[in-house]
Design brief:
Layout: H1 2-20, E1 30-46, E2 49-63, E3 70-83, E4 88-98, E5 104-107, E6 112-123, E7 129-154, E8 159-178, E9 189-204
């Protein structure tokens, strides 16, 4: 289970940073990755309505040798609301935003983290887009864990071979995720982590 969580986190981190890099950054084959990040998953029930929220924030450095590398900082959010009495999906929203340096901070030896930003999300149910403010604090709850893994993916267009390792600390996250009318995170997190990851990846076209 831990390896699966770490793999998902790394994939999210790579995807997040890829959204922010210029297209020319993919001209090389060799990419090196290192960065600190935090994840939080909230789940709450109000009457018949279940609300699930996933937040991912990252402050990373990508390098395509021999280039100097790019510092990439951003956050993603996913919000789902479901009425289990009627079987109706009420909201399926997501969004991404680049972050200024103070917006996301990891403090100490992965002891805590903060995220304070606003993300424009688009809801695929209603077809509308709207700003969501995020003000979250992560507090580490356990000891540091370490992981070292390899990943290989092959498709008709390219191959990816990657090696990643990092440090992880389980955490609790609390705060507000709101559209101004609804706080989507009234309960504590179902799961949360603070991470420090690095990965070397080779992409062959």
């Amino acid at each position: 289970m831990m390896k699966k969580k770490i793999f998902v986190t790394v994939v999210l981190a790579l995807t997040l940073a890829a959204l922010m890099l210029p297209n020319t950054a993919w001209a090389g084959d060799n990419f090196r990755f290192r960065g600190k990040s935090a994840t939080a998953f909230f789940f709450s029930t109000d009457g018949c309505v279940e609300t699930a929220v996933f937040v991912f924030a990252s402050d990373d450095r990508f390098q395509s040798p021999p280039g100097p590398g790019d510092v990439v900082s951003g956050a993603s959010i996913f919000i789902s609301r479901f009425d289990f009495c009627t079987g109706e999906l009420l909201m399926d929203a997501s969004g991404f935003a680049s972050l200024a340096a103070p917006d996301f901070q990891v403090i100490g030896n992965l002891n805590s983290a903060t995220l304070d930003t606003t993300i424009e999300v688009c809801d695929f149910v209603s077809g509308s887009c709207f700003p969501v403010s995020i003000d979250l604090t992560w507090t580490g709850t356990g000891g540091l864990s370490r992981e070292n893994s390899h990943f290989h993916f092959q498709s008709p267009g390219f191959n990816i071979n990657s090696h990643f390792n990092g440090r992880f600390r389980n955490a609790e996250a609390s705060g507000n995720v709101s559209d101004g009318a609804t706080n989507f995170t009234p309960a504590s997190t179902l799961s949360a982590q603070i991470q420090d990851l690095k990965s070397g990846t080779i992409v062959v076209d």
